[in-house]
Specification:
alpha+beta, Trna Endonuclease, Chain: A, domain 1, 2 domains, five-stranded mixed beta sheet, 10 strands
Length: about 290
């Protein structure tokens, strides 16, 4: 049957070459590195041709991935320097690559020799090339099982967060057991006007919505080191200044702080905001307070 004049869709050679590269790379990734190969759909290709999903030797999918741009054909192995082959990228992809959230590999595949070489994209490794950019892909940087460790370094350590979360959940459960959470502020923290200890603690009890709701009106603050001071806390200048400063850097007080008859900090805070002490001739502070504790 003579089909020369028949009307069929045409597959150009560039498409066939590109598909050969995908096949060669997919085989290398899945059968030698034992990772997953995910190709990007053509309509979603903005300079990233796919992703390599990293799997441990035990078959665990880690959540770590590496993106790649794949170029297949002998033409990509023609421009050479002392180190390797010159890859010329498109100007529209440069900003996209720099802002991309995953590491990106530039991969060149020779469909005849089935050689695969690669380099991690790094903007500092690029040079200007007229209106575009270029970078070198080392000729001896083959993508194979020997390059696995180097590829893993590009994504950073793979961490088992499950055990860490278990510890966090234990603390959450412990905090939920109690009807009062008391932060004791050392006198040195007050004198030196330090707040980080308390701010870290308040942030911790707001770690999850469930914990935050449980902690509502159950937090109180006390001060160590003033037990032998005959003055009320709001009469002590450094305490008053510390409390007033604290209210400027956090706004969680109406929700978290204990407002019942046993809660002391909110009453202290109220006095610190309302009362201006004045010294009498004999040097004592004098004022009169009347309030309804309800």
């Amino acid at each position: 049957m003579n089909l020369e004049d028949a009307n069929f869709p045409i597959v150009n050679s560039a498409t066939l070459t590109g598909r050969k590269g995908v096949t060669i790379l997919k085989d290398k990734i899945e059968n030698e590195l034992n990772w997953l190969f995910r190709e990007t759909h053509l309509e979603d290709d903005f300079g990233i041709d796919g992703h390599l999903d990293i799997i441990t030797d035990e078959g665990q999918v880690t959540g770590k991935s590496i993106a790649f741009q794949l170029k297949t054909g002998e033409s990509f192995f023609k421009e050479k320097n002392d180190v390797g082959y010159v890859y010329r990228g498109e100007a529209k992809h440069l900003n996209y690559y720099i802002n991309y959230s995953l590491p990106i590999l530039i991969i060149l595949v020779n469909p005849k020799s089935r050689i695969i070489i690669w380099e991690l994209f790094d903007a500092t490794k690029t040079d200007k090339a007229k209106k575009s950019w270029k970078m070198t892909i080392p000729e001896n940087k083959y993508l194979n099982i020997k390059s696995k460790n180097a590829l893993l370094k590009s994504v950073g350590p793979i961490t088992d967060f499950s055990s860490q979360l278990e510890e966090e959940w234990k603390i959450n459960d412990l905090l939920k057991k109690y009807d009062r959470i008391l932060f004791r502020i050392p006198k040195t923290e007050v004198i030196e006007r330090r707040f980080q200890f308390l701010m870290d603690g308040l942030e911790r009890v707001q770690a999850t919505t469930d914990l935050l709701i449980h902690t509502k009106n159950k937090v109180d603050i006390s001060f160590d080191g003033y037990d032998h001071d005959e003055r009320e806390l709001f009469e002590i200048p450094e305490v008053k200044e510390w409390v007033l400063e604290l209210f400027k850097i956090s706004n969680c007080w109406p929700y978290l702080m204990a407002l019942d008859e046993f809660g002391s900090f909110m009453r202290l805070a109220q006095f610190c905001h309302l009362i201006e002490t004045k010294k009498t001739k004999d040097g004592n502070n004098k004022f009169l307070i009347e309030f309804d504790k309800k």
